[in-house]
Design a protein that fits this description.
This protein has two domains: 3-33 and 47-150 and 180-201, no CATH class; 220-250, no CATH class. The chain contains six helices and six strands; from the N terminus they run αββααββββααα. It has helices at residues 3-28, 64-88, 93-119, 182-201, 220-239, 243-250; strands at 34-37, 40-50, 148-153, 157-160, 172-175, 179-180. Strands 1-2-3-6 form a four-stranded antiparallel sheet. α1 (3-28) packs parallel to α3 (93-119) and α2 packs antiparallel against α3.
């Protein structure tokens, strides 16, 4: 399969899973409703919404949401352009797919911010009323002001902090407390893959090509200049012989 098709497949799969789960949670769960996954206490579906970045990070500024949405769009545009360059440079598949997962995750949250306010009714904090699809433009918000749906929650363990530690001693800390979505997970996996496997990705340089192929990084202008110099040198050697000496040798 071509590298471009592999990236498209990964992006499409992440977007499908992300949006399918978000729409299901948005239209069937009450706000803050919590359901165990496979009966596990440490793996849960917990519906919340946020107006900020991954893992519920938010901005308090009035125009923070709008700037964040614009930043996401610019970032995704830059990532798509970068993926195109990587495909043309024949970059390692692992690195290419990692960047593709980051792009898919960012795009998934952009869809929430751009469209969910236009197509869904609101999810009340106190009343158990699941959201419904609304006529386009008659939802709870405006373009680029939609809320990102989060639902994946893994409160694995409470860790007791020793009393002798200053300032925080005696408290308990929940591991792992953030509530996130599949798009956030895709971004995290993509970044961690690049950090953990970068030596493997780039052990043979940025570009990867089969043995015997011409390295695309080599300057073609330099090769043409070198070949022209060799042909000129051969021509000079062939014409340096004195014609008088040649005639005398023949006689």
């Amino acid at each position: 399969m071509k590298r471009s098709y592999q990236v498209i497949l990964v992006v499409a799969l992440v977007l499908f899973l992300d949006q399918a789960l978000k729409i299901y949670i948005k239209t069937t769960f009450c706000y803050n409703q919590d359901v165990p996954i496979f009966g596990l206490d440490w793996a849960r579906l917990h519906f919340v919404e946020n107006e900020g970045m991954a893992f519920g990070i938010t901005f308090g500024w009035e125009y923070g949401k709008l700037l964040l949405s614009i930043f996401r769009i610019l970032m995704v545009s830059a990532l798509i352009w970068y993926i195109r360059l990587l495909i043309e440079a024949d970059a390692p598949v692992g690195f290419l797919l990692s960047v593709g997962m980051i792009t898919a995750g960012a795009l998934g949250n952009i869809i929430d911010s751009a469209l969910y306010g236009l197509i869904f009714t609101g999810s009340p904090y106190h009343d158990c009323i699941p959201a419904q699809f609304a006529a386009f433009g008659e939802g709870y918000g405006t373009f680029l002001h939609g809320k990102v749906v989060d639902m994946l929650y893994f409160p694995m363990a409470w860790i007791h902090i020793p009393d002798w530690l200053p300032w925080i001693g005696g408290d308990e800390w929940l591991f792992f407390s953030p509530i996130f979505n599949i798009a956030d997970a895709a971004i995290t996996i993509g970044v961690l893959s690049i950090l953990l496997f970068q030596r493997q990705f780039f052990s043979e340089g940025l570009t990867h090509h089969p043995e015997g192929d011409i390295d695309p990084v080599v300057d073609t202008a330099f090769l043409e200049e070198q070949n022209a110099g060799e042909s000129t040198e051969q021509h000079d050697l062939s014409t340096d012989t004195d014609p008088v000496e040649n005639n005398s040798e023949k006689s």
